[in-house]
Design goal:
Elements: H1 5-18, E1 22-25, E2 31-33, H2 45-48, E3 55-57, E4 60-64, E5 72-76, H3 80-96, H4 106-114, H5 120-129, E6 135-144, H6 150-160, E7 168-173, E8 176-182, H7 189-207, E9 212-215, E10 219-221, H8 225-242, E11 248-250, H9 255-261, H10 265-272, H11 286-297, H12 302-309, H13 313-327, H14 334-347
Parallel strand pairs: 9-11
Antiparallel strand pairs: 1-2, 1-5, 3-4, 4-5, 6-8, 6-9, 6-10, 7-8
Helix pairs in contact: 1-3, 3-5, 6-7, 10-14, 11-12, 12-13
Length: about 350
């Protein structure tokens, strides 16, 4: 088998990362790595009968990829640890031999990680090839771009990220960019939300178009980045459904909304219609709903709500009394306020998200 020069370089890089003494032989037993040697070895028949398993021969542990035109890896040492290392190294080499791998770059690998297309030893092999740290505190921030040009969005995000600190940007699809943000143990969720707000503000200043941003939980293993990315996407989908006036959504802050999103549409409609129906349309007009939302935002504080709405406190009391007479719910009582809030959110549930993907 004639191996591409770039493939050999990638294999050399992997073996260098593993810091082991090795030889890579072709199907005829000729050494192809390390480069510059023309030695030929006769491999034992006992090994060749089951070459996929590590085999100790003298001071070396041997293993093969088991293909029609096999490669043989010889690693210096005869311990169980060396056998485990041989398995891992051969698995890495097999990944390099895949058709698409020689042309893959770091962004391709990160995209595959976020989509959970690679796991385990394959992930470790590709991460080693592209110098992606396996253990590092990171979280994923997803940006949904709507009609914004991806290249423009990429450049804006690049200017606001810190590659030297470990930040990585991945284009996931036509409408989505992912920022893999390097953080530390002291980073608070409020810090990440502030960063999201700063990103959203910068995008709006630069493009005059809204960008929806979701922030997943921190993880410390590269293999768990897919989980953080899923959370970030879920935060956007759920946040866009239930918090229409917002554009930055933190997964952890959407527990109630995520619960409601899992309620089947028919069940949500059944219960929400008990309050939000044809007969309540007149009382629950835009002005009244705005009043109620502001009242909830201010934690049922009458004075602060009246101040922010620029109305007299008695006017607010009158509106809440009107709601109580019509619907039987006094929104100044916590339990009634919760009931109304849940029914209002259920009424906003949609069969499918409006966001494209």
């Amino acid at each position: 088998m004639n191996l591409d020069h770039h493939v050999l370089l990638r294999i050399e890089q992997i073996m260098s990362e593993l810091e082991i003494k090795y030889m890579l032989l072709n199907e005829d037993g000729e050494m192809i790595l390390p480069a510059g040697s023309s030695h030929r070895f006769n491999l034992p028949d006992k090994f060749l009968k089951n070459a996929r398993e590590p085999f100790v021969y003298g001071d070396y542990t041997l293993i093969s990829d088991g293909t029609e035109h096999p490669l043989y890896l010889c690693i210096n040492g005869d311990s169980n640890e060396v056998s485990a290392c041989a398995r891992l190294a051969m698995r890495m080499i097999e990944m390099v031999m895949k058709v698409d791998l020689p042309s893959a770059n770091a962004e391709d690998v990160l995209r595959a990680i976020l989509k959970e297309e690679i796991k385990g030893s394959e992930l470790e092999a590709l991460a080693a090839m592209h110098s992606i740290e396996l253990e590092s505190e990171r979280c994923v921030i997803a940006l949904h771009l709507n009609d914004l040009d991806t290249e423009i969005a990429y450049n804006i995000l690049e200017n606001m990220s810190s590659p030297d600190d470990g930040d990585l940007i991945v284009e996931m699809d036509k409408y989505t960019l992912a920022l893999i943000k390097a953080i530390d143990k002291k980073t608070e969720y409020s810090d990440m939300e502030q960063l999201g707000q700063a990103l959203q503000s910068s995008f709006y200043v630069e493009t005059s178009r809204p960008v929806f941003i979701g922030i997943g939980d921190p993880v410390d293993q590269v293999g768990d980045l897919s989980q953080s990315y899923k959370q970030a996407r879920t935060a956007i989908d759920v946040g866009h459904m239930y918090r229409k006036d917002e554009q930055v959504f933190v997964f952890r802050n959407l527990l109630m909304e995520r619960f409601l999103a899992d309620v089947p549409v028919d069940i949500a409609s059944k219960y929400s219609r008990s309050l939000f129906n044809h007969s309540s349309t007149r009382i629950l007009n835009e002005e009244m709903l705005n009043t109620i939302n502001k009242f909830f935002e201010n934690n049922l504080n009458l004075s602060e709500t009246a101040r922010q709405l620029y109305i007299h406190r008695n006017t607010l009391v009158y509106r809440l009394d009107k709601i109580e007479r019509s619907l039987g719910l006094d929104l100044r009582v916590f339990e009634n306020a919760i009931t109304f809030k849940l029914m209002m959110l259920l009424s906003q549930k949609q069969p499918e998200s409006e966001l494209r993907s």
